[in-house]
Amino acid sequence: MNIMFMGTPDFALISLKKLVECGYNVTSVVCREDKPKGRGGQMAMPPTKEFAIEKGINVYQPNTFKDGAFAEVLEKENPDIIIVVAYGRILPEYVLNYPKYGCINLHGSALPKYRGSAPIQWTVINGDDFAGVSTMFMDVGLDTGDIIDVYTTPLGENETAGELFDRLALSGAELLCNTVEKIKSGNATRTPQNEDEATYAPILNKEMGKLRFDMPAEKIRNLVRGLNPWPSAYVNTNKGIMKVHSAEVTRKNAGVPAGTRIPSKDAIVIQTSNGQISLTEVQLQGKKRMSAAELLRGHDIVIEE
Do 144 and 134 contact (CB within 8 A), yes or no? Predict the structure, then answer.
């Protein structure tokens, strides 16, 4: 089968590499546009583009699919199947309907749970016991297509969204290769999604990272984990915005209002609605990440609204 692979970030790169490693005929890679990166603002290629160039695979970076703009590429490449992993753009019907074996998507949740753009982060933010990845036949809806395969795994007690991304990228690549083999051999099954069980994982933004200490301590800890590494949880302080990279729950209750700072020389401990939370790894603007104990040796930190 001639495979057209659509994907942009590192999560997609793992699947692309696995398909090539497994001997599948990836003839083209479609990814988002190059973007400025770092303080210098130099243009940087997406990871999938770099790999494709290295392997001599054709690369396309369309800025639109409207009005049949991509039809010429489809005719030229003539893919038997299109595989989509974290591409970052909605595909119109004429693209979905073109390949003989359809368009297959690898999604970062056990569908129909967490349809949408940030399934892995919301799995952590909501404190789920299990995470997963799914492969599905794509349709015009948002992650609504028939499911082919699902893989689930327990979520680590202290696992961050970044760590879960790395794990699921590897597991998803394996699942994807198994799915392609099933499609190739004619053994792929289609299971319609149960709409009654569908939930959504909306896009993240920086504003949702501001910690509110009137929330339960466990919810705050999960938010810190789920927004690590981006966009990061944070608090406002007398020294400016302070990112919070990790936090620990303490079940004690000091009998003071939520948001009250609990005196401590080597920890930033704050009363929540149902206990206390210790901000264990933090980062002031322009400074390196460090433990709260290390920070407090050089700074008098005051949490502000």
Answer: no
State both tokens at 216: 């339960």
Number of H helices and E strands in the chain, helices first, is 8, 18
Contact 121, 161 (CB under 8 A): yes
DSSP code for 34: P
Count of Cβ atoms closer than 10 Å to residue 204 Cβ: 18
Tell the residue number behind the tokens 């998803």, with chain if given. Answer: 172
In this predicted model, what pLDDT tens digit does every residue of 186-213 receive, in sequence order? 999 999 999 999 999 999 999 999 999 9
Phi, psi of 187 (to 5 degrees): -105, 10
Using DSSP's 3-state secondary structure scheme, residue 131 falls into strand
Q: Which fold has domain 2-201?
A: Rossmann fold (3.40.50)
Domain ranges of the chain: 2-201, 206-304
**Are 156 and 127 a contacting pair, CB within 8 Å?**
no
How high is the pLDDT of residue 212? 96
User: Residue 166 pairs with which residues in a beta bridge?
Assistant: none
